[in-house]
Amino acid sequence: MSVAVAVRQNLERSSWIRKMFEEGRRLKQQFGETKVFDFSLGNPDLEPPAEFLQALAAAAASAELGTHAYMPNAGYQFARVAMAEKIAAEHALAMTADDVILTVGAAGALNVVLKTIMDPGDEVIVIRPYFAEYAFYIANHGGCMKPVDAGDGFLPDMATIAAALSAKTAAVILNTPNNPSGRVYPRSVIEDLAAVLLKAGRETGRQPVLIVDEPYRDIVYDGLVAPPILDAYPESIVVSSFSKTLSIPGERIGYIGVNPAIGDKRLLLDCMVMANRILGYVNAPALMQRAVAASWRARADIDRYRRRRDMLTGVLDASGLSYAKPEGAFYLFCQVPPAKHSHDAADSSDVAFAMHLKTFNVLGVPGTGFGCPGWLRFSYCVPETVIEASKPAFIEALRHW
Ligand SMILES: Cc1ncc(COP(=O)(O)O)c(C=O)c1O
User: Fold this and answer.
1) pLDDT in tens, 311-354
2) For residue 389, what pLDDT band results from cuts at 50, 70 and 90?
3) 265-280 pLDDT per residue, tens
4) How far is the CA of 114 from the centre of ligand 1 (A)?
5) Is there an atom of ligand 1 within 6 Å of 49 CB?
6) DSSP character for 327?
7) Atom of ligand 1 nearest to the CA of 131
8) 42 CB near ligand 1 (under 6 Å)
9) Tens digit of pLDDT for each residue in 77-108?
10) Which of 94, 226, 270, 313 has its CA 20 to 30 A from that of 40?
11) For domain 5-48+301-399, which architecture applies?
12) Pick from 388, 302, 319, 322: which is nearest to 357 by CA?
C-alpha cells in the first residue's frame, strides 16, 4: 500500500489541536474526567437553540417526494434566498440568491473558493496567528500560503500586507472574529485593507480576492458588533457556517456569498458550483439546508461564552498569566511567560509550556500551530465547572514554571 508523500507529510505536521485533544482523552482515562482541564478543542458544547431543533424536526418529518433527492449543486433556492438576506444585512449590500452557494461548512466553502480562484503556485496571504487548517486547504489546490505578522493587538498590519502582495497573490484570507486571538477587526482596519488591496491591484494588474472567513461573526461580547466587510471591497467573498452560532459543527452546513460587484461574477459562481460538485460535496446536506433556512436568525446562548471568558480571565489573572482579552469567538490567546528555572530559550517555548501545563492536567494548544510561537491558545467551549476547577492547577503550574 502506498500513501502519497504530500499526504503523509500533512499527517506528520497535523495539528497540535488534535495532538492535545488526544492527550486530553488519555489523561481523562488515567485521572478521571473531573481531574483534567482540557481547553484544547474549539468544539461548541452548548445546546443548539430551540428554533433550530424545531425546524430540524419539522424538516425531518416531511414525507414529500423528492425531499431526499439530489438537487442543484448550489443548494435549494429557498435556502439561497435566506442566506442572501442574512449576508446582505451583515455586509451592508444588496445580494440575491444567485450570489450564494450552500456548502459543507465553512471548511467546505474555503476549499471551493480556493480551488476556483488559484492556479498552481499562486499565493494566499494569511495573517498570524491564523487558523491552522488554512495551510492544508491552500495546499489542497496547489497554492502556497504566505503568512504575515499581525501588528499591535493582533490587528492586520497594512505595511506587512502591502509588502507581501504581488502579481502571484490570488487572495488574502481575513478571519474575524479571530481564531485564535479573539480579536474583532474594527471597520477602520477593513477600510485600510481595502485601500491597500486596491492599490496593489492597480500596481500589479491583478486584483486579489479578499476571502472573509467569519464563522464566529455572532459570537462577540460587551456590546460589540462585527462590522460589515464586503461593502468595503468589490473583489470579496464571504465564507461562513452555522457550526458555532447554532452550535451544530457536526452537521456541516455553511455557505459562500459572493460580492455582486466582483469581476467575472457569473463565471466565478458557475465555476464554484462546479467545484462544489467535483470536490465530492455535490451539494450541502439537504436536511440541514431546510433547518437553517428556517432558523438562521436564532443563536446559541452566546452570553454563556462571555461568562466563561470572564471566568477564564479570572483564573489566568490569579495565576499571573498575560493574555489578549477576547472580544469575540471562544478562544483566549495567552503569552508564554519566561521559565523561571532555566535560561535556555527552548525551555520557555510555547511547546515546552504546553507540555509543562500538561503535567498539571491543563491542556492548551501551542501558538506554533497558528504560526505564532510564544503564545498558547485556550478554548473555553468547556463547562463552567471545568474552568472553576482548573484554578489551583494553573496556579501550581505557574509556581513551578
Ligand atoms: C477560523 C475558522 N474557519 C473555518 C472553520 C471551519 O468551520 P466549519 O465547521 O464551518 O467547517 C473553523 C472551525 O473551527 C474556524 O475556526
Assistant:
1) 999 999 999 999 999 999 999 999 999 988 776 777 779 999 99
2) very high
3) 999 999 999 999 999 9
4) 15
5) no
6) S
7) 1
8) yes
9) 999 999 999 999 999 999 999 999 999 999 99
10) 226
11) Alpha-Beta Complex (3.90)
12) 319
Picking from 358, 351, 357, the residue whose alpha carbon sits closest to that of residue 372 is: 351
Report pLDDT for 15: 67
Cell of 110: 474555503
- Amino acid of residue 359: T
- Numbered ranges of CATH 3.90.1150.10 in the chain: 5-48+301-399
Order of strands, edge to edge, in the sheet holding 169-175? 100-103, 254-258, 236-241, 209-213, 169-175, 123-127, 144-148
Q: How far is CA 357 from CA 297, 366, 381, in A?
A: 40, 11, 19
50-295 has which CATH code?
Answer: 3.40.640.10
Whether residue 180 is preceded by a cis peptide bond, meaning omega within 30 degrees of 0, is yes
How many angstroms separate the CA atoms of 125 and 259, rounded?
20
Q: Where in the chain is the domain with CATH 3.40.640.10?
A: 50-295
Q: Which amino acid is at 203?
A: E
Distance CA 308, CA 329 (A): 12
Residues 173-198 have a mean pLDDT of: 98
**Paired residues of 107 in beta bridges:** none
Q: Rounded to 5 degrees, what angle do the CA atoms 102, 103, 104 make? A: 145
What distance in angstroms lies between residue 396's CA and the mean position of ligand 1's atoms? 33
- 144-164 tens-digit pLDDT: 999 999 999 999 999 999 999
Which residue from 43, 45, 124, 131 has its CB within 8 A of the most atoms of ligand 1, so it is best to mutate?
131
Ligand 1 centroid vs 338 CA: distance in angstroms? 32
Question: E-assigned strands of 87-151?
Answer: 100-103, 123-127, 144-148
φ/ψ region of 374 (left if φ > 0, alpha if ψ in -120 to 50, else beta) reads: left
Question: In a 3-state reduction of DSSP, which class is residue 38?
Answer: strand
DSSP structure class, residue 100: E
Handedness of CA 45, 51, 53, 55 (dihedral sign): negative
Find out whether the peptide bond into 186 is cis, omega within 30 degrees of 0.
Answer: no
Grid cell, residue 327, equals 472580544
